[in-house]
Amino acid sequence: MANVKNGSSNKRVKKVILSIAVLAILVVVLKILDIPVVETLFPSLGGDTQQTEQNPTQQPTQIVETPEGTLIMTMIECGQADSFLFQQENFVALVDCGTRSTGDDVVEYLKSIGITKIDLLFGTHPHDDHMGGMYDVITNFEIGKIIIPKIKVGEVTTNWYLKLVEEIKNKNHTVEYPTVNTVYTLGDATMTVLGPLSEPDDNLNNYSIVMKVTYGNMDVLMTGDAEKEVEAEIIASGVNLDAEILKVGHHGSNTSSTEAFLDAIAPDYALISCKVGNKHDHPTAETMEKLKERNIEVYRTDESGTVILTITANDVTFNTDPDDYKSGIELAGGS
After folding, report:
1. 172 shares a domain with 49
2. Which of 99, 204, 305, 326 has the CA that lies 20 to 30 A from 129?
């Protein structure tokens, strides 16, 4: 029996030696091929390293806290389009959503700062560069209320718009068609609809919801792409347009921002959302000259990317320095 035990022991020793030899050869081969040894041979020990390699672009979520006593306004960089975020306490409003191709950029930004619900979702008018990205937004977040202009049946027949309308109906979203003087509440801030006052013609830009956002003694005028006709109507209505901050109409086009409109608002700061080298040459030299003549500080996405405003009851600060008064053509290197 002793001889049998010794024979069995010898076999086990040989197996161990053989296993070690095979392992050593594998380690040498993996080193030569520059393949991670531990992660390959012992995947359960790879832990976080393996997870990072499977999701190389994943980044830690950065939660932006809304300081007490502030309204945070963000002009989200989304190409030749508009998307403006308002946060007050735990309440969120989004005005426009980028284009069909940049709506996912808006979604990514909102998710990166920890937003899961949008209480008030505004689509100023049914053009791709304002509402094209709304489908992406409503399919990624809980939505409290959708606020859009009432469009005549058959006036907009683009596929992306019909798809959006169908999604809104299928998911039974709450939809409101605002009228002048409608006031929406966002925490301690208010959003008051000022226009349009009459039914627009066939120019979809003039369906744009124009509204004043008020927090304490500070006002922001949001204009969508409303053109000169709507501006004139609003001035004629006698409503108080005075505001410290202006979202410049139609990305700085010369179809908006008349002298009379700018003088009625008398803003200290102007916001322009547009893309470098856009085919419309926004903002135009004419508009930029008007802003410069009035010493209005300009902040624009084509130069500064996403711009964040921290608005208190009596003041506003920006996350970046003011930009220049170059036209779109000048910025793109044209003449």
Report:
1. no
2. 326
pLDDT of residue 201: 80
Nearest partner of 191 among 86, 108, 261, 279, judged by Cα: 86
CA dist., res. 14 & res. 287, Å (int): 87
Structure-block tokens of residue 16: 């161990």
- Whether 29 and 139 map to the same domain: the answer is no
pLDDT of residue 325: 97
Q: What is the pLDDT of residue 55?
A: 34
Q: Are 325 and 289 in contact (CB under 8 A)?
A: yes
Contact 148, 225 (CB under 8 A): no
Tokens 């744009």 map to which residue? 208
**Residue 180, phi-psi category: left (phi > 0), alpha (psi -120 to 50), beta (remainder):** beta
Asked whether the beta carbons of 122 and 209 are under 8 A apart, the reply is: yes
| Burial of 57: CB neighbours in 10 Å, binned 0-12, 13-18, 19+ | exposed
Q: Is residue 193 situated within a structural domain? A: yes
Identify whether the C-beta of residue 243 lies closer than 8 Å to the C-beta of residue 214. no
Q: What is the CATH number of the domain that holds 247?
A: 3.60.15.10
Residues contacting 86, CB < 8 A, separation 6+? 71, 72, 73, 74, 92, 93, 94, 95, 186, 189, 191, 213
Give the Cα separation of 283 and 300 in Å (integer): 10
Q: Is residue 228 part of a domain?
A: yes
Residue 181 in 3-state DSSP?
coil
Residues of the chain under the 50 pLDDT cut? 1-8, 33, 37-40, 42-64
Cα dihedral 317, 318, 319, 321, rounded to 10, equals -120
